[in-house]
Amino acid sequence: MTKVETLLTIRDLEIEYQAAEARIKAVDRVNIEMKARECVALIGESGSGKSTIANALLRILPENSAIGRGDILFKGRSLLSLTEDEMRRIRGADISMVFQDPHSFLNPVLRIGDQLSETIKTHSPGMEERKVLEKARELLSVVRIPDPAQILSRYPHQLSGGMAQRVGIALALSSNPALIIADEPTSALDLTIQAQVLKLLKGLRDRFNLSILLITHDLSLVSNIAERVYVMYSGQIVEEDQVDGLYRDPKHPYTVMLLEAVKKLQGTDTSYSAQAESREKPAESRCRFLPRCPQAGEACRSKAPEYMTFPSGKKILCCQ
Amino acid sequence: MGKSLNRQIWILGLVLAALFFVGLFPSLVTTREALKSGYTAGLAAPTLSFPLGTDQLGRDVFAWVVNGTRVAFTVGTACTLISFLIALLGMFAGYYGGKVDQVLMRVTDLTMAVPRFVLIVVFTTLLGSKFLNIILIIGTLSWPTLARIMRAETLSLREREFVLSARVAGSRSPDILFFEILPNIMPAVIPSLALQFSYSIIDEIAISFLGLGDPNVASWGLLISIGRQAVFAGGWWVLLSPCVICILLLVCLNLLADRLNDQFNPKLRFIQL
What we know:
The complex is a heterodimer. Chain A is α/β, with parallel strands linked by helices. Chain A contains twelve helices and twelve strands. Chain B is elongated and about 75 Å long. Chain B is 76% helix and 0% strand.
């Protein structure tokens, strides 16, 4: 392979929410690039805008939001200029999604088999009923569900969380997509199941040549599966690097604090240095992390932060 | 509690199924024709060969009651089906919102503002009292309540995650409506369908009782109005027979609707515990 094609490019994306009185910029000048067969993680705390990006990719943003600027290119096509009908054809077929809480994303009154076959039929109309069922069964065994034939006739409430999430993944796979967006796929699961589901996702990526955009706040997931990481804070990408570079040598103060917080939770470091979140709002053009930053200096207060690129390819958004 | 609720539904269902069977095959129960006069010379009390007697014109009351069962079920089924199909508009209104919703809901307001029975009487008079006409009129006038229930249910369901997940999987809107949303609103709709069924029957009986019904159809309403006169000549059986069967059918239907509501409404189910 000489050239790895670029699958997804998010360029200068800006998304605003219209709240009761103010306009809130949820995503601010975000650039993300994904190659085919790559697993990229987007990490950040709640409200940092990571799910907004996922919704923008599928164009399922709520009505009170607007894409102000920028573009999303998928296989070279701009997703933002497609008509709703063209977009519908991309959803599921090229890009599909695995959700956080599988139980609420499955229709409670329909059997698993009916839901799977409905999605299969949406993407290959005219397929024989027998073949549809066969494919549904196959998908369930792909996601390592024991006794698929029996699960097909079950209702969602009869499944455990891990099972339901596997069904969710099977649904996402049913149309052979090129990209799967996994929005906090393991947050609703307990620890042992988390590991299994991650392992499953990893296996599926190799088997089906998938690209995965993993959206999470859990750093331990990221190191397990992702190759590159984007760290988001308050709507901006503050650091971008290969996964080992990020762990070995975090540069942005937010990333540093994030990694230290994990160490504290794991009990390897018991010192206390957490910075309380400040309600003080920095000026629009200044660094958004300023109120919480332990390394803030004079420069941070006087100028806007800019992206800096390190020789390793790491990029950070910082003034220092 | 849940068990006895289930048993009640079964018993009611069985009674209704028996009546339905009689309506489906009236010739298995009686060989006489319902509207044919001259079986006896005038009013005759119940005997072994005429279990419910005959009326002033010598018509067999039993045959009439039996054939009336078929009429009642035909009216109930057809009218409920028609109003259900029209009420599906409520689902579209709830899902798409906007102008469609506004227009549809104002139309239901309009139909609900005028008493339904007055409209039925007016339209039957205008369009003529053919049996088919009456069914169409009752059916097309009884959808607003159903449509409102469907709209309200859809409004809350369309925000649910599984609808989003279907959209993300690339489903078309009609698929989402009929495959994802409709099965979820049926529990709320089924009890009102059962009620609708009995209301339509009552309406048809009332129309026939007033003499606006199709004279060639063996409706219970017509028999009741004949019985009203027969009573003065001592023929109480002509009035009593259709009244008893009406009450049996309608009480069963309403009880069934009520029990189905209990069964399908999870909030009520918990209160009963």
